[in-house]
Amino acid sequence: MNRGLFVASAAAMLAGCDSWKNSLNENDGVKRVLHVATRLNHAVIGTHGMAKLYSEADIDRDYPTNGDPTPADPVYQGLVNDGFRSYRLPVTGLVDHPQTFDLRQLRALATLSQITRHDCVEGWSVVGKWRGVPLAHFLALVRPQPEARYVVFYSFDHDDGGQQFYGSIDLHQAAHPQTQLALDLNGKPIDPDHGGPVRLRLPTQLAYKSTKWVQRIELVSNFRKIFGGHGGYWEDQGYEWYAGI
Amino acid sequence: MDAAAPIVTPRASDAPETSGPVVYRHSVTTRLTHWAGALAFVLLVMSGFAIFDAAPYLDASDYSNPAHRVLAIDSKAGPNGAQIGVTRVFGHEFTTTHLLGYTDDGQGGETARAFPGWITWPAYQDLAGARAWHFFFGWVMVLVGTIYLAVGLLRRDLSLLIVRPSDFPKMWPMQAYYLRLRKEPPPHGKYNPLQKAGYTVVLFVLCPFIVLTGLALSPGVDAAIAPLTSLLGGRQFARTWHFLATLALVGFLFGHVFLVASTGFFNNMRSMTLGTYRLGKNEGTGK
Q1: Structural domain boundaries of chain B?
Q2: Which CATH number is correct for A50-236, 3.40.720.10, 3.90.420.10, 3.40.190.10, 1.10.3720.10?
C-alpha cells in the first residue's frame, strides 16, 4: 500500500475514535476516578519550600494578559474611573474581626516585594516583580476562627454567561510566606488588565489560582455551597483545586 | 515452574527464530505490568499532546522566551488566503497543514491546532480534561513501573535485561542478524544484547527522566525540590526535555512493535499473554 494512503487511512481510523474518546472524557464516573490523582498530587507535592526568586534583569516588561481583559462590571468600571479611590476590600465569614480595607490601608501593609515566575496552566511562564501584602499577615488582622479552613477570593469579573470568577486556597497555602495580596506589578500599581487594584499572587501554584480583581474575601469551613462547589471558577470547569502541578 | 525447563521438544521444520524448545518466558507480573504500562503509556502520550496544544511551542529557557524557541506549531493565512498549518523547528518553517498547526479538531472538522484530534486525548481541545487523564495515568505508570522493578529485584531476574560490557561485542553481530547480513544471532540469554541495551536505556534512563522532567514543570515541585527545575535549565526547558523524552520513548515503541511483528509475531505475543515462548536459534534463558 502507498505510504501516504496508509497514513491517511490510519488517521481516518483513529479519527473514528474521536467521539468515543470525547464521551469517555465527559463521563462523570470516569472523571471521579481520574480525580483521585489530584488528591494524590496534593498529598505528595503539597506546598513546601519557596518559589525561586529572580533578578530585575529577568522581569518581562510586556507582561501578558490572559483570559479576560478589564472586567466590564459597572461597579468595577466606576472604580477605574475614580482611580480606585472608592475601592474597599471587605473580609467576612469565619473571622473574629471582620474588616474593610481601603487601598491606603493595604499599601501601608505592603511589605513583601518579590520577583517570581508566573506559571500558566497552558504551559508558558513569565517573570514579574510583585509588591503587596503578605496574606498571612493580612489574615492575622481579621483573626480567623478555628473552624475556618479556606480563604475564598471573589472577583469583580464575570464570564460571558454572567458567572462570577472566584477562587479559594486553604489556610496552609495562605500562611506560605510568598502568598500575597499583590498591589504593584513591576513597580507600578497593577493596571486594570492585570487584575488591579488587588489580586492574589501564589507563586507556588499555577496562576489560575491567583484570582484577579479581588472584590471581597470570605473565610469558610468548606466551599461546597459556593457556586459550582469545587472551590473556584476554573475548578468548576474541571481544573484541579490543588494546582501545585 | 522452572524457567529453563523445555515444555515441548523442538521441531526440525521450524523457522530459525522459532526452532527451539518452548519455555516459560514471562511471569504473570511481567505480563500484567507490561500491558498496564502499555495502556498508560499510550494515554500519557495522547493526553500529553493535548496538553501541549494549549501552548504549542517549546523554549530552551527558564521562563518563556521566543528568542530561545526550539519548536513552534502555528497556523497562519496561506498564499491563497486559506489558513495553513506551519511547524517551525529551530526557525526553519515547514508547511504541515492537515497534520500539524491547522488540523483535525477532534469533532469532525479542522481548526487552528497543533496536534490533531486523532492523536490527542481527549480528541477535542480540553486542557482540564487532558490534565486529569495525564496525572491519573502518570500515577498508574509510576505504580506499574515500581511493581515491575520491585518484583524483578526480589526474584533476581531484573539483571537478565541489564546491559553489561560483555554484551558490547555482540551488538553488531545481533544488528547484522536483524539486517539479514548474518544467518544466526550471536549466542545470548533471555534477552539479546540489543534488547538489553534498549530496555536498560528505557527503564533506567528515559523513564526516570520523563518523570523528573514532568515534575519539574510544576511550580509546587520547583519550590519543594529547588535544584531539580534549575538543573534542567528551568521550567520551559523542562517542558522541552519532557517532550524530547516522549519522542524518544515513542521511537522506542515503534521499534519495539516492529521487532515484535518481524521476529515471530505469534510466538512473541504468546510470551506476553500466556507466558510461553519457543526459543530461537542461539537463544537461551539466562544472562
Answers
A1: 1-27+155-287, 55-119
A2: 3.90.420.10
* A-chain residues near B107 (CB < 8 A): 18-19, 22
pTM: 0.93
Mean pLDDT score, A163-180: 98
Q: How far is B51 from chain A (nearest CA, A)?
A: 7
Q: How far apart are CA A35 and CA B184, in angstroms?
A: 51
Contact B271, B285 (CB under 8 A): no
**Percentage helix, strand, coil for chain A under 3-state DSSP, each rounded to 5:** 30, 25, 40
ipTM above 0.85, yes or no: yes
CB B150 within 8 A of CB B246: no
The fold of the B1-27+155-287 domain, in CATH, is Fumarate Reductase Cytochrome B subunit (1.20.950)
pLDDT band at B1 (very low <50, low <70, confident <90, very high): very low
Do A238 and B55 lie within an 8 Å CB cutoff? Answer: no
What residues in A contact B138, CB-CB < 8 Å?
37
The string of pLDDT tens digits covering residues B230-279 is 999 999 999 999 999 999 999 999 999 999 999 999 999 999 999 999 99
Q: Does B235 touch chain A (CB under 8 A)?
A: yes
Q: Is the pLDDT of residue A239 over 60?
A: yes
